Structure formats: structure tokens, C-alpha cells
Amino acid sequence: MASRCRRPQRAIPPDTPCGYCFDDWATVWDHIRPYSAGGRSQPANLMPSCRACNAWFSDHVYPSIEAKREARRQFLRALERETARSTRGGSI
Q: Would you list the domain boundaries of the chain?
């Protein structure tokens, strides 16, 4: 039985940054429009992504690639603020 989602034919080039957070190396292809929402495994719908970003997006649909990037960046900024706050307040 064939897989529901065919993997893209080409590999992610080495040293390609994640197309969302730009903080980690891309290791997987993310569907810009999720496969579960009708997105196809075609180059125009694929973004090189790190596993963390790919998992975070799951099957959520965003109105544009810019909105998707901004949602992830806002989450990462909030996480950084929370981490900084907890390390400042938790030191002895």
C-alpha cells in the first residue's frame, strides 16, 4: 500500500537553516499548507524545517508563509522571555 504523503525526491542541501526559526539546521520538509488540509508534496508547498518547528506546526493552517513564520517567532520570543525570567528569579 502506498504512503499517503510521498516524500519529496530531493534531499535538503547540507547546512540549510530552518525556514522558520533560522536557529537550527533543516532536517525535514514541512508542508506549508498541511497535507491533511489538502497541501501537496510539491516544491512550492515545501519548506526546509528543523524537527522542532515541523512538530510545533503540526497540521495547523496559516493564511501565508509569513504568518506561519511570525507565529513561530512569537512563540520562540515568549519562550526566551520566560526562560530569562525563570533564570533571573531562580538563582541563589
A: 28-89
Per-residue pLDDT of 63-89, as tens digits, reads: 999 999 999 999 999 999 999 988 876
Distance from C-alpha of 73 to C-alpha of 89, rounded to nearest angstrom = 24
| pTM confidence score | 0.78
Buried b or exposed e, range 39-64, using 16+ CB within 10 angstroms: bebeeebbbbbbebbbebbeeeebee
Q: What is the residue whose three cell numbers read 499517503?
A: 4
Contacts for 25 with CB less than 8 Å, ≥ 6 apart: 15, 16, 17, 18, 50
What would the pLDDT profile of 28-44 be if each residue is shown by its tens digit?
999 999 999 999 999 99
pLDDT at 29: 95
H or E element, residue 28: strand 28-31
Cell numbers linked to 5: 504523503
